[in-house]
Design goal:
- By secondary structure, the chain is α+β, with helices and mostly antiparallel strands.
- Helices cover 20% and strands 13% of the residues.
- The strands form two sheets. A four-stranded antiparallel sheet has the order 1-2-6-3, with no helix packed on it. The chain has a two-stranded antiparallel ribbon with strand order 4-5.
- The longest helix is centred in the last third of the chain and has 18 residues.
- The protein is elongated, with a radius of gyration of 34 Å.
Length: 201
């Protein structure tokens, strides 16, 4: 009867023995775009990006390491679905009951070493070099024009004139006298002389 073979014991377990390769994928001329998002509530060693849907965790690790020399400890990714809307964004007149879901977006949050944090610069307080006031005025005018020609324009009263209640209160209080329309306008709809002149009492 042959002698039994000696029992080979396993060696001690080594934590984190498998280290994935880092920086072995060369990045020369990338044909994609990464958008860095401002995350004021996240720690300084975390950063969030909007990446293409076909980008994986190894791609963003090699991308940041090869181009910017940033070491990434861990990566968390998730896909955010867009809200369902009516018709496509390119449609001039959206058709009802024709639902369309825009393309989803993929976000990745990376963890960097605590010794090399990234802090966003403080936002500027003076926006005059960027004409922020003009931009906000243009946005308000565009929104008012959209409401004026929209399907619910009749429900939204105009804010540039007086309401019927205000005009009736002025007539009842005696501040202004009533004036018929034929005094200021002829039969063809053209103005006569001083249009809208009010007779003060």
């Amino acid at each position: 009867m042959p002698a039994p073979k000696p029992y080979h014991r396993l060696g001690p377990l080594v934590p984190n023995r498998f280290i994935p390769p880092k920086g072995q994928k060369k990045v020369y001329l990338p044909n994609f775009t990464l958008t860095l998002l401002r995350t004021p509530f996240a720690p300084p060693n975390y950063a969030t990006f909007i990446v293409p849907l076909n980008t994986n965790k190894f791609d963003i690790k090699d991308y940041l390491y090869q181009l910017y020399g940033v070491e990434v400890i861990s990566v968390r990714s998730y896909i955010k679905q867009a809200k369902v809307r009516q018709d496509k964004p390119s449609a001039r007149l959206p058709k009802p009951n024709r639902w369309y879901r825009p393309r989803a977006t993929k976000r990745m949050t990376i963890e960097m070493p605590a010794s090399a944090p990234f802090v966003w610069p403080s936002p500027p307080e003076d926006f005059k070099p960027w004409d922020k006031d003009m931009h906000e005025t243009a946005v308000k005018e565009r929104e008012a024009e959209r409401k004026a020609v929209g399907p619910d324009a009749k429900r939204n009263p105009k804010g540039d004139g007086k309401t019927l209640r205000e005009q009736a209160e002025e007539l009842l209080s005696g501040k202004k006298a009533w004036r018929p329309g034929w005094v200021d306008w002829d039969v063809t709809g053209r103005a006569r002389g001083d249009v809208g002149a009010q007779v003060e009492i």
